[in-house]
Design goal:
Blueprint lengths: L10 H11 L3 H11 L1 H30 L2 H33 L4 H35 L5 H27 L3 H24 L5 H22 L11 H36 L2 H13 L3 H23 L1 H28 L1 H9 L9 H24 L4 H25 L1 H31 L1
Helix pairs in contact: 2-3, 3-7, 3-10, 3-11, 4-5, 4-6, 4-8, 4-9, 4-10, 4-11, 5-6, 5-9, 6-7, 6-8, 7-8, 9-10, 9-15, 9-16, 11-12, 11-14, 12-14, 14-16, 15-16
């Protein structure tokens, strides 16, 4: 008869527990916060997101130094379009998998994950075919800017979605190191081929988007092997899984699309209302604070399944404690990076791009304010998703989207790139206020 005893803790964990027993409780809690198993997984998640952030930073830098602001603007608009399709993917596939799958046992997760994976494949194929067709039509109509960009996005929509889904599936089961390896493979190949094209004077906006697709495809192959245990022929009914995912994910998707419209769509508007070169200048400024995305994405990617399990097992008070820890651990590095960009904008712009974008250095302060406001509401979004209350996210971003189509458009028409950044900051403030009020109501409802 097999033993029912729990396995002994790892030696290092036993030593740590004995050491902490000798310390005052507040000091022991602080050490445990930064050295426990959850903390180590968080460090891995931050490293994983760091790889993505560094790769995006370097990709923008390579293109900015070897091509015109117009080509950088084309790449920026295409990259923003990838964020749109990610919003749909997050709502219909990834967030339901994170939220429901985190608390499932291995067999239940295998059946559910296989069904959701099949839905993800269908979504990737449909989105890739749609954007490719749009590119073909644009070329037929004589648009030699939008056409090649949309055609280049076709493979990116397909392979990047599938690779991202596999990577996030690993997160759901706590395999952060495996996810980080997959990220490293994708971005190493992506940057390598960009360097090769750059040396051959072939790097431009569309080829930079093609590099994303090729890197994702190369990483997808080991990713399928890494997730092989989560595939089964005995998967759940696809229609039922779709209905289950849709019931939860429609509000997440709606919120993310509204957020994309309220925040990410601004550079697209800038390209249309001003020029692609102006959108390229925006991308260059944004790249200075791009490392902030490291911790923001790490918070969402790592914390969502963990928060969902915490809420499922321990309820809203435990979820609130986890959110406070998220703010404490991410606040100092994020605000420090933003302060660095604000203090040395000219030096950073000249070091990265030479003289090309120095005229836009005044926009760095506004960009830092925008990212600080985004940081302020980011963990709240995670908390609502973990609690399966996605409607506040949708309402918040819908209100921000309304502001974009009124005040935002006016700001772009009046101040160009600076109006773009100011409009984004306004929208982030609106999202923060709506989510903050909703969270306070949720907290009071649980505690009163």
């Amino acid at each position: 008869m097999p033993s029912t005893e729990s396995p002994p803790p790892p030696l290092n964990e036993t030593w740590l527990a004995r050491y902490l027993e000798r310390l005052p409780a507040p000091l022991a809690s602080l050490i445990l916060l930064f050295s426990g198993q959850g903390a180590r997984a968080g460090y891995l998640a931050a490293a994983d997101q760091g790889l993505i952030s560094i790769a995006n930073f370097l990709a923008t830098l390579f293109l900015a130094r070897s091509a015109s602001p117009t080509e950088l603007g084309i790449y920026g608009v295409g990259f923003t379009s990838l964020r749109l399709v990610r919003s749909i993917q997050e709502g219909l596939c990834i967030q339901p998998l994170n939220t429901f799958g985190a608390a499932q046992d291995e067999d239940a997760f295998r059946r559910y994950a296989t069904s959701t994976s099949l839905l993800q494949i269908l979504l990737a194929l449909l989105s890739a075919a749609s954007v490719s067709l749009a590119g073909w039509l644009a070329l037929r109509l004589g648009n030699d800017v939008a056409g090649p960009t949309l055609i280049a996005l076709g493979p990116a929509f397909l392979w990047w979605q599938l690779q991202e889904y596999v990577r996030r599936m690993l997160y759901t089961r706590g395999r952060v190191l495996a996810a980080a390896f997959n990220t490293a493979v994708a971005n190493a190949f992506r940057l390598g081929i960009m360097i090769w094209w750059m040396r051959r004077d072939q790097l431009d906006g569309p080829t930079s988007l093609q590099a994303i697709a090729l890197g994702a495809l190369v990483a997808l192959l080991p990713g399928v092997w890494q997730t092989r245990r989560y595939w089964t022929l005995g998967f759940e009914n696809l229609r039922q899984v779709w209905a289950h995912n849709w019931d939860f994910g429609r509000w997440v998707m709606g919120g993310l699309i509204a957020n994309w419209v309220a925040v990410e769509f601004y550079p697209v508007l800038t390209a249309g209302m001003v020029s692609f070169a102006a959108a390229g200048a925006y991308r260059a400024l944004q790249n200075l604070v791009a490392p902030v995305q490291l911790l923001l994405r790490a918070t969402d990617t790592f914390l969502t399944p963990r928060a969902a399990k915490t809420f499922h097992d321990q309820g809203q008070p435990a979820l609130a404690r986890l959110m406070r820890l998220a703010y404490v651990t991410t606040g100092v590095p994020i605000l420090g990076l933003l302060a660095l960009a604000v203090l040395f904008p000219n030096q950073l712009l000249k070091a990265l791009y030479g003289e090309t974008y120095l005229a836009f250095s005044d926009g760095i302060l506004m960009m830092a304010i925008f990212y600080a406001l985004m940081y302020a509401y980011w963990p709240l979004q995670t908390a609502f998703k973990a609690a399966r209350l996605s409607r506040p996210i949708f309402v918040a971003n819908l209100a921000a989207g309304a502001a974009m189509f009124t005040a935002g458009i006016w700001m772009i028409s009046r101040w160009g790139v600076y109006g773009t950044i100011g409009g984004q900051a306004l929208n982030a403030l609106i999202v923060l206020l709506v989510l903050g009020v909703s969270w306070d109501k949720l907290r009071r409802g649980k505690t009163n």
